[in-house]
Amino acid sequence: MNMNAYAAKVLKDLETRCAHENEFLQAAGEMLPSLSPVLDEHPEYERAGLLERFVEAERIIIFRVPWLDDQRRPRVNRACRVQFSSAIGPYKGGLRFHPSVNLSILKFLALEQTLKNSLTGLPIGGGKGGSDFDPKGKSDDEVMCFCQSLMNELYRHIGPDIDVPAGDIGVGAREVGYLYGQYKRLTGRHNGSFTGKGLTYGGSNGRTQATGYGLMYLVEAMLKENGHKISGMRAVISGSGNVAIYAAEKALQMGANVIAMSDSDGFIHDKKGIDLDAVKEIKLTRRGRISSYPSLIGTGRYREGASGIWETPCELALPCATQNEMDRTSAEALVKNGVIAVAEGANMPATIEATDHFQKAGVLFASGKAANAGGVAVSALEMSQNAMRLGWSFDEVDRELRSIMNRIFSDTSAAAEKYGCPKNYVAGANIAGFLKVAEAMMAQGQV
Ligand code: NDP
């Protein structure tokens, strides 16, 4: 596919202006060329300067977060909220706490979030935030102190009609509770300005499971369109956090055999099938390391080094840990071992080279913008429930999630077909997500 000249110009300009933002440039570099057929069809977008506005965050807030550790020593981290696009609704996207967090990573996540949120068909714009704070090894008191201090600044920039954060890497139920508690103390309002909340204070049934379950619903739809089924497939799932655990749970329910999982230190391989209860006990209850799996249950093998997981032969590979965890070497190993489908539970886990390799080899490949949209979709349902002062049952939410994921897949597939790249579910997701944002931006004027 030839790259549209306008897309090429905007990308080149970004490469100069954001020269040090590698992850952001990677995300834009993957997205812009795939929009070429849409830009060819809509020359008015260039006259309206639409792409230049689309790739520039509407607002970025950066602030310091001072907090006290258990020895009462002052500590300082940096936090940031990228309010990327409000074209179709209030900014919406998670907060990430991890030492690697920087502006480039948050901008790439916010850009992808904008298209993902559009794909859900729900009225939510795109945002992302986070801090270089590392919750690992911190006491509950330290995490609470940090979360409260972060919210002391963030609360003035969020709200149910403005910006609604949620969890992401390092921000789970505990952190969301501390963050939302402080928001409520400062504003005096219980107005649902955060999603992923606990069930006792405004959370939605099914939000914890939503990203992982949604991933599997989309995988099921993609396999069905191509004449395959999940049942009997060997699945390899990287990570052992929120997304990975519930993807594994649904994969098992669908009849797959989950044979490998990982954390950032290494991975476990159990040919007979991973014992998911043991993984939950280690990662969710004990906040421990996956290396303790073989000694806990007496089977399976642990190997140091997270990326080795992709050498495990399987039919279904689900990267659910972090960006760029699957490179060209990993893709080559998976293809050599006969992988049939790859779907991104994490955001941008496959490098551009890895994605190209899968697509050239005829492997079915679903990008994160479509595949992991289930989490934010149920977050939007949580916002609706909060606004209506209602709580839906798990089954109601799960049914809605499945129908949203099926629709996302059919929109993605239809867009790929219509714009001349059938079965290219990466381009299809980019195009279907972008079209709605572009139309909203055109309708709302240029300044
Ligand atoms: P969690 O913090 O719950 O889990 C992250 C997992 O990934 C942990 O097991 C972590 O291991 C592991 N990990 C981190 N870095 C690496 C690495 N370099 N190699 C291998 N494993 C690694 O985060 P989530 O599950 O919430 O998020 C995972 C991904 O899914 C992220 O990309 C996130 O942006 C994306 N996502 C999450 C959504 C959600 O609803 N939570 C929604 C949509 C996307 P360790 O314990 O060692 O840190």
Can you tell me about this structure?
The strands form 2 sheets. The chain has a 7-stranded mixed beta sheet with strand order 9-8-7-6-10-11-12, sandwiched between helices. A 5-stranded mixed beta sheet has the order 1-2-4-3-5. The radius of gyration is 21 Å and the shape is globular. It is built from 18 helices and 12 strands. It is of the alpha/beta class and 447 residues long. It starts with a helix and ends with a helix. A hairpin with a 3-residue loop joins strand 7 (257-262) and strand 8. The structure holds NADPH dihydro-nicotinamide-adenine-dinucleotide phosphate.
Summarize the entry for a quick read:
The chain is α/β, with parallel strands linked by helices and 447 residues long. 48% of the residues lie in helices and 15% in strands. It folds into 3 domains: 49 residues, no CATH class; 132 residues, Leucine Dehydrogenase, chain A, domain 1 (Rossmann fold, 3-Layer(aba) Sandwich); 158 residues, 3-Layer(aba) Sandwich (Rossmann fold), CATH 3.40.50.
